[in-house]
UniProtKB/TrEMBL annotation:
Domain FAD-binding FR-type: 242-340
Biological source species: Alca torda
An individual GO BP term: defense response
Gene3D superfamilies per UniProt: Nucleotide-binding domain of ferredoxin-NADP reductase (FNR) module, Translation factors
Protein name in UniProt: NOX1 oxidase
Cellular component terms per the entry's GO annotation: NADPH oxidase complex
UniProt keyword annotations, A-Z: Cell membrane, Glycoprotein, Heme, Iron, Membrane, Metal-binding, Oxidoreductase, Transmembrane, Transmembrane helix
Principal place of residence: membrane
Membrane topology: Multi-pass membrane protein
Membrane-spanning ranges: 52-73, 117-141, 153-177
């Protein structure tokens, strides 16, 4: 059991070293920038930072359980050895504390000591209980249901990581687990002298063994977690410094569907397409920071976000802006998979509901590139799919698509962008209205040239059509939407990618916050 406890402790130290690295967002953005010339598959690994963070957390939970159970067995055996009077080796070693203060091996020195007493009165026991409870609270509050419906619970309990790391560092300093010292091992080797300890009453004329001496096994956790913890502290200091910089809200627009658009300016703010920021409103909460994808283009002199009423915090923010102009703090921007969109010859952009926001930035940037006749644009074709439940969700994005249609037609590149809008929720009045105006040049729902499609996309057909149109291209598939849709798209990417490296390849990319 001691071997299991020691082995799981090593694994806990290793995973505790890794757990903070995936949430160092500035580090990831820096690595993404320095890896711009690296292979595409290497850069894509950075997009799995939260998945990696979760896997490490599950590993921590598993090894914590193994470590705790193993030590419970250890304490029972320690207790049994202390109470034993049969002269066995465990019984003799448990009495070594009577021969000198530095010779004890068994931490239990009394027959009245219980497991509960050790757990709540010793430094290793008490810190073990505390960090286990902290870990349980962090893991259970990180479930998708809690994150979606009670984000504040997830946010606040996750800051128990400070208690976890403090307890982890302190956990081993008491030296409750001991072993024979190296000097004693040379003189009193267990294989040679174990029998002597159990038969001391017999005459020993020569070559007698001394009593073994034991020492505490030094604490090592701090060596594992010091560097990543300091890196994370530097990350938080940098984020606090950036958050203190003044943000000026230049324009507030309330779109249909209860979507709030904020246009802002901040000194020294530079962004790329598809990036996101964290936003805090001190009037609502001093500690809550929420991620929002930037909907503006790098070519614009402001940066903007669109906020949908999707929870208590966003509802309060929208109501606050309808009454006054509160102070806003911004941290970022941070990189995402969408930054690589212009690295592909062909791109498929898939947005679900408000998940269209990163692609608003991309399409705006394309509009500016057409305005400036940018010849460095590598992308030759973009397919854009937007899936919405209600017609009002299309309203705030219509103007951008309309202006983009017009600009591409003027530039002689009307085929550059193909977009499909899917409405998954409708009633009989909408269906009757569409049927009545079926022959009109523009869509009755959006007013655009492309007609809205009622229902969900048939992804096999869509991917087959793209593969047929671009038989030798590398196609980047970008999604900002739910996990169920991600599984469907990822499956289609595998099915429609050719094994021949000279033919079409689909690469799946998903936004992660």
């Amino acid at each position: 059991a001691l071997a299991w406890a020691r082995a799981s402790a090593k694994c806990l130290n290793f995973n505790s070293m890794l757990i903070l690295l995936p949430v160092c967002r500035n580090l990831l953005s820096f690595l993404r920038g320095t890896c711009s010339c690296c292979r595409r598959t290497l850069r894509k690994q950075l997009d799995h930072n939260l998945t990696f963070h979760k896997l490490v957390a599950y590993a921590l939970a598993l090894f914590t359980a193994v470590h705790t159970i193993a030590h419970l067995f250890n304490l029972e055996r320690y207790n049994h050895s202390q109470q034993a009077t049969d002269g066995s080796l465990p019984a003799v070693l448990s009495k070594m504390h009577l021969h000198g203060s530095n010779k004890w091996l068994n931490p239990i020195h009394s027959n009245q000591t219980t497991v509960e007493y050790v757990a709540f009165t010793t430094i290793p026991g008490l810190t073990g209980v505390i960090i286990t409870l902290a870990l349980i609270l962090m893991v259970t509050s990180s479930t998708e249901f809690i994150r979606r419906n009670y984000f504040e619970v997830f946010w606040y309990t996750h800051h128990l990581f400070l208690i976890y790391f403090a307890g982890l560092v302190i956990h081993g300093i008491a030296g409750l687990v001991r072993g024979q010292t190296e000097e004693s091992m040379k003189e009193v080797h267990p294989r040679r002298c174990a029998q002597y300890l159990t038969q001391k009453d017999k005459d020993c004329s020569d070559n007698c063994c001394k009593d073994p001496e034991f020492g505490s096994i030094p604490a090592e956790s701090w060596k594992w977690v010091l560097a990543p913890f300091l890196l994370y502290v530097f990350e938080r200091i940098l984020r606090v410094w950036r958050a203190w910089q003044k943000v000026v809200v230049t324009k507030v627009v309330m779109h249909p569907g209860h979507v709030l658009e904020l246009q802002m300016q901040k000194k020294g703010f530079r962004m790329e397409v598809g990036q996101y920021i964290f936003v805090n409103c001190p009037d609502i909460s001093l500690l809550e920071w929420h991620p929002f994808t930037l909907t503006s283009a790098p070519e614009e002199d402001f940066f903007s976000i669109h906020i949908r009423d999707a929870g208590d915090w966003t509802k309060c923010l929208i109501n606050t802006f309808q009454q006054q102009m509160p102070r806003i703090e911004v941290d970022g921007p941070f990189g995402t998979a969408s930054e690589d969109v212009f690295q592909y010859e062909v791109a498929m952009l898939v947005g679900a509901g408000i998940g269209v926001t990163p692609f608003a930035s991309i399409l705006k940037s394309i509009w500016y590139k057409f305005q400036q006749a940018d010849q460095t644009l590598k992308t030759k074709k973009i397919y854009f799919y937007w899936i919405c439940r209600e017609t009002g969700a299309f309203a705030w994005f219509n103007d951008l698509l309309a202006s983009l249609e017009q600009k591409m037609a003027e530039s002689g590149k009307a085929d550059f962008l193909t977009y499909r809008l899917f409405l998954t929720g409708w009633n009989s009045s909408i269906a009757n209205n569409v049927a009545l105006h079926f022959d009109t040049a523009t869509d009755t729902v959006t007013g655009l040239r492309h007609k809205t499609i009622f229902g969900r996309p048939m992804w096999n057909s869509e991917f087959a059509a793209v593969a047929a149109a671009h038989p030798r291209s590398v196609v980047g598939v970008f999604l900002c939407g739910p996990g169920s849709l991600a599984k469907s798209l990822q499956k289609s990417c595998h099915q429609h990618s050719s094994l021949d490296p000279r033919k079409v390849k689909f690469y799946f990319n998903k936004e992660n916050f």
